[in-house]
Structures are given as C-alpha cells and as structure tokens.
Amino acid sequence: MYLQSIRLTQFKNYGQRKFDFNARFNVVTGHNGVGKTNLLDAIYVLCMTKSFFGGTDRNIIRKETDFARLAGIFRMEGGMKQMDVVAKVIKQKKKTFEVNGKVYDRLLEHVGRLPVVMIAPDDTLIATGGSEERRKFADNTLSQKNPAYLSALVRYNRLLKQRNALLKSKSGWLDMNLLQSYNDQLLEPAEYIFSARKAWTDALTPLFNEYYSLISGAREEVSIAYKSPLSQDAFSVLLDKSLEKDKILERTTVGIHRDDFVFFMEEMPLKRFASQGQRKSFVIALKLAQYQFLAQASPELPILLMDDIFDKLDRERVANLVEVIGESGFGQVFITDTHPTRVSELLDIPHQVIDID
User: Fold this and answer.
1) 272 and 337 inside one domain
2) Quick one: DSSP state of residue 94?
3) Are residues 34 and 95 in the same domain?
4) Which of 24, 48, 248, 306 could form a disulfide with 335 if both were Cys (CB 3.0 to 4.6 A apart)?
5) 104 and 160 share a domain?
6) Same structural domain for residues 262 and 131?
7) What is the pLDDT along the chain (357 residues), one digit of tens a residue?
C-alpha cells in the first residue's frame, strides 16, 4: 500500500496544494513552520479519520476559513487497486469520510483499513509521561489491528463514563441495581481488552528489543512489563472490593483504564535513569515495533510517518535508524528534516525529496 498523491484544501496552513509521492521513500524538507508536520498529519488524518495531535476537528481548518478538505489516492495490492479517500470538515457540521464515493455511516469503520504509524517529537511522553500516554499507544496499535478491540474500547469507555456519572450523582442515594448493571456490562469488554493488551505486549517485546539493539548499536538492555489490576483478580471481584472507595472518590478506581506499561533499561526504570537520547531511541524502537506488528497483521504494509526524529540522537544512531527504515521490511516512508540533504546522504535507495519552502 502507498499514497500516490494528496490534495489539501484549507487544511491548517495550506490553502490549496497537491503533492505526488514516491511509492517507497519521501523526504520532506524545509524550514521550521512551513508545513512539513502538517503534511504528515494530513496523511495521518486520511488513514485514521483524525489528527495525530488530537484536539477538535476545527483545529485542522485553516484560519479565517470555515471548512477543510483532504483527498488522497492510495494504491493497494501492489498498485493494482485504487482507493480514493476524501475527508470533509465543515465548522458546526459533522465530519464526513468517503472511500471511492461511499460515505461511512460510522468513522470507526475506516480505522485499520489504511494502517499507519507516526513518530513525532512529543512521542517521548510515551516514556516520560503518565500511564494514559502508554495506554493510548497500545490502543492505537490494537484498534488498527482488530475492529473488535476498538468496539470493546468504545463500549468500555461509554459504560465507564455512565458509571462515574452515577457515582457523582448528588441525590444522596445511590441506585445499587443500576450500579450492578454497569458492573456486569463492563466485565466483557474489560476482559477482552486485558487479554488483547497482554498478548500484544508478548508479541511486541521481541520486535522492540530487535529494533532498539539496531538503533543503539546493542549498547543497552531494555524491556517492557504490562501492569493491570486485572492480572491480580477477576474484574468483578475488584469492582466489589473497591465499592466504598469508589463512592468516596465518586469515580471508578479499578479497571483497564488504570493499566500501565512499565519500561526498563538495564533493569532500571527508564523514566529515572535514561538520557534524552536513550529515551528517544527507546520510543522510536517502540514505534518501529508497532509498525512491524501491524505489518504482520495486515495484507498491506503500513505507511510510516517520521517527523523531526533526529533531534537528541547522535550521528551513529541517526545512521543506524536510516539504515533500518531503508530495508525491505518497510513500505512507504515519509520523513521530515530541516536539513536539506542529511537523509539523502545517508540513503542508498531511490527516493523523492519534497521541498516545502
């Protein structure tokens, strides 16, 4: 799978712009602020129906305009099949997505059809931030691999919101029958998500270890541990045990929304002991492992988007990284850089340079 071209209309800093791409490797160059990251985010939107950077849909509409339109032509099955994807965002209206002229009833139907992995500077929050960042990373991967996981996640979050609203009710009386109903409904999606995350961690770890070794030159030993309340006891038992605490705090204090993935380097917590370069290498290796995990689960190779990845990496790690992504195990790659020739000097495969300036 690869993106043949994209046409942007009133998207972020772009008025009207069309780009044609190389099927294998694209280097996007230009000064800071010219729109390199926005181009990669536009590709991400077409694949995932939303911006990589979160926020509301209005944030992708160019200032002083009231709509944005993105249109991409994807080639599938070795270029034999074409998929036309169009996203339309209009202020105060529902966002629409269409594939080959057919509009989706639910945007969730599109997730996973065009697998994508994006690596961006703020990804270091996966290593240094709170547990929510690591859960988002896991959910992004598993939602692209398995529609049932995404459905379970949406269902769990909806029920969790309803349960928390009940706990926060100020009526002075808690409807225990309704609370038990929410508890019963939460069990199935929670167990499904827990099992999927556990299996994913086991599958991801050897891929991650391999990529970290390649990028770092095998300098350090790294590992991942999945921590979940559900590994200690059945979710139904945990909910019963936490009832009084939940009533006092007016929120659900146990469940897969409390899961975490703990990262280690040389058997020490990554957060506390790794340098900035080591943390960045760690996160890039995680994302490359995510890419290969999705590649193994999909008939099409994902698109890899790499934004401003060279900061905080020494020259050896940069060279190792470019060599890794130049190998045949990767499909279409987009990489941004303010340096006009750095990537080209390291690449020994045909590629396209796109100068945004």
Assistant:
1) no
2) -
3) yes
4) 306
5) no
6) yes
7) 999 999 999 999 999 999 999 999 999 999 999 999 999 999 999 999 999 998 888 899 999 999 999 999 999 988 789 999 999 999 989 899 999 999 999 999 999 999 999 999 899 999 999 999 999 999 999 999 999 999 999 999 999 999 999 999 866 788 999 999 999 999 999 999 999 999 999 999 999 999 999 888 877 889 999 999 999 999 999 999 999 999 999 999 999 999 999 999 888 888 888 888 888 889 999 999 999 999 999 889 999 999 988 877 777 888 888 888 887 789 999 999 888 888 888 888 889 999 997
Cα distance between residue 116 and residue 43, in whole Å? 9
**Residues 99 and 158 grouped into a single domain:** no
DSSP state of 61: B
Q: Are strands 303-306 and 116-119 parallel, antiparallel or unpaired?
A: parallel
Q: Do 134 and 271 sit in the same domain of this protein?
A: yes
Buried b (16+ CB within 10 A) or exposed e, 3-19: bbebbbbbbbebeebeb
In a domain, 40, yes or no: yes
Q: Round to whole Å and give the CA distance between 198 and 236.
A: 19
Q: Which domain holds residue 70?
A: 1-115+298-356
Q: Do residues 253 and 319 touch, judged by C-beta distance below 8 A?
A: no
